[in-house]
Amino acid sequence: MGAASRTPHVHHRRRDSHFGDPVTSTTDRTRRPTALPPPDYDRLPALTAALAARAPAHDRDASFPTEGIALVHEAGLLTATVATRYGGAGAGLADTVRILRALGAGDPAVALVTAMTLFTHAAEARTPAWPVTAYADLLAASATRPALVNALRVEPELGSPVRGGLPATTARRDGDQWLLTGRKIYSTGAVGLSRMLVFARTEPGAGEPVRVGTFIVRAGSPGLTVEPTWDHVGLRASRSDDVVLDSVPVPAGDVIGLAEPGDTPGARPDPVTGAWNALGLTALYLGVAGAARDWLIGFLHERVPTALGAPLATLPRFQSAVGEIETALIGADTLVDALAARVDAGDPEAAERAGAAKVLGIRAAITAVDQALALVGNHGLTHANPLQRHHRDVLCGRVHTPQDDSVLTATGRAALARRSAPAASATSAVSTASAPPNSAVPKGN
């Protein structure tokens, strides 16, 4: 949905997140790990069921799933990726994939908001970049309530910054603080965030170059407004609304990675960060597809046409169709799990292949739900059944970074480059063979 087509809404002044977040800061927190609830993976099946029970109402009303987020926090899953040195469990990508698949099967809106927070803590665990006190304050809040975090990067004119370009959102220095002004769109979970990580550029001063960085904006800051613009077909409860900043104050030190822009200012900093995003979100949407498959299986067992006198599940046609769905999902799940484990083990090749796995996994998830719909006809498109919601939700998997065109172009270029390398070596070998003895010919490239 482009900026020109967005319907105007009444502005709502942002006063606080759904969970509250008193601003406290003590030097002591910078020295001691914060006691965080340990992740309880055994609660995942029950959590999936609890989220699934509430998901239809949140989808219908496009309401933020506050209760679901609270359940994730109570299970210790919202902070699972916090490093052990900070008092967390230090969960890796393999555990994160497990979490997001289960949450995605219950309510993908809860899963997506959770994913953004898990990715933030995981990045800080790998490469500390937050100001020490700012991160300590976030962990202190996380110990007692859900403290959601998300990076707000997308803008009406800029689009996704991973494709390049400077943000229009500006940060102007005013004494011991920055004043941020701009608009961010598709800000997942905006109404429930404790911290907004706003990608912005500085205004050039006398002899000062333009710099870009991530500014830590707290919920309830003056000048911060969330506009309820989110009216999507899928993931309606994610409340990915617009965030408007009107001279929002940020302490001078609450900035991450402030530097002069490179060729692609908004590019993701490293392959591992990209792999977490690609594999984590693919697992989420495979969870949606798994929920669709489970509903289909239940329907086929319960549906007994009069003329048949037996459940549809007894017919070879339906058995084969379900087998095709199951086989595709098994393959996609196995690929994601295997690559996630390899990323945790430090395998750089696995991180490089995560984008391709996203393309394969999201396609498998969408195809599986499409096939389920085709099998059950009108029943699948009825609001009383969840299959139509799963179909709308799973389509959102395509829009996340990295997107198919970027992955396929990069993968194709890499494959073509591999073919040119042996050709160059062969040409060199021919030259070597035909050269006079003792001639100075390079031995390979």
Automatic annotation (TrEMBL):
Residues 50-116 form the Acyl-CoA dehydrogenase/oxidase N-terminal domain. GO terms for molecular function: flavin adenine dinucleotide binding; oxidoreductase activity, acting on the CH-CH group of donors. Residues 280-401 form the Acyl-CoA dehydrogenase C-terminal domain. Keywords: Flavoprotein, Oxidoreductase. Residues 155-248 form the Acyl-CoA oxidase/dehydrogenase middle domain. InterPro entries: Acyl-CoA_DH_C, Acyl-CoA_Oxase/DH_mid-dom, Acyl-CoA_Oxase/DH_mid-dom_sf, AcylCo_DH-like_C, AcylCoA_DH/ox_N, AcylCoA_DH/ox_N_sf, AcylCoA_DH/oxidase_NM_dom_sf, Mito_Isobutyryl-CoADH. Gene3D superfamilies: Acyl-CoA dehydrogenase/oxidase, N-terminal domain (1.10.540.10), Butyryl-CoA Dehydrogenase, subunit A, domain 2 (2.40.110.10), Butyryl-CoA Dehydrogenase, subunit A, domain 3 (1.20.140.10). The keyword Cell wall biogenesis/degradation does not apply. Residues 1-43, 419-445 are annotated as: Disordered. It comes from the Bacteria. CDD domains: ACAD. PANTHER family: ISOBUTYRYL-COA DEHYDROGENASE, ISOBUTYRYL-COA DEHYDROGENASE, MITOCHONDRIAL. This is Acyl-CoA dehydrogenase. It comes from Streptomyces malaysiensis. The lineage of its organism: Bacteria, Bacillati, Actinomycetota, Actinomycetes, Kitasatosporales.
